[in-house]
């Protein structure tokens, strides 16, 4: 094998390790975090909008939580 082929194989191995060890886990954590944040934020918005439309919902939910 020539020196260029050996260098390319070494570079390919380094890129593969970078992608599998660093990039894929980081992107997975970011994706799951973004999804969780968007669900949490949408729940906050829907609760606030429901409270604006019908303020008695807050009282009902509070009473239900105390009963548990």
SSE layout:
Elements: H1 3-53, H2 56-67
Molecular structure report:
- 0% of the residues are buried.
- The protein is an all-alpha fold and 68 residues long.
- The model has no long low-confidence stretch (mean pLDDT 87).
- The chain has helices at residues 3-53, 56-67.
- The chain has one domain (3-67).
- It starts with a helix and ends with a helix.
Question: Quick recap of the structure?
Answer:
With 68 residues, the chain is an all-alpha fold. It is built from 2 helices and no strands.
Order of helices and strands: HH
Helix content: over 70%
Shape: rod-shaped
Ranges with pLDDT <50 over ≥5 residues?
Answer: none
For the terminal residues, how far apart are their CA atoms? 73 Å
**Helix/strand/pairing category:** mainly alpha
Largest sheet: none
Report the average pLDDT across residues. 87
How many distinct domains?
1
Q: Helical element count? A: 2
**What amount of the residues lies in strands?**
under 5%
- Total count of strands: 0
Which value, in Å, is the CA radius of gyration?
25 Å
């Amino acid at each position: 094998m020539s020196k260029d082929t050996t260098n390319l194989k070494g570079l390919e191995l380094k890129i593969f390790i970078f992608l599998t060890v660093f990039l894929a886990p980081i992107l997975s954590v970011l994706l799951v975090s973004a999804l969780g944040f968007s669900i949490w934020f949408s729940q906050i918005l829907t609760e606030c909008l429901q409270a604006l439309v019908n303020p008695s919902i807050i009282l009902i939910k509070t009473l239900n939580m105390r009963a548990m």
